[in-house]
Design a protein that fits this description.
Number of strands: 0
Structural class: mainly alpha
Number of helices: 3
Distance between the termini: 34 Å
Amino acid sequence: MTDQDVGVAFATLTTALAVALHKQGVADGEALLAETVGTLEAVLDGDYPETARAILSACARSLRAAEG
């Protein structure tokens, strides 16, 4: 497992956690949601392979949808 694999797995889990907390109305969930979106967008500007970028991009879209 590469560092990028770990990063993608972490981003996916963080996305699920942030969305779940936000939907439950947990105050920290909203902050986690915003922070996670920012982190994912910063990573997407990096040098990730196309498949990893697609997964991370999907995570970011899910988070943005949960925010709205």
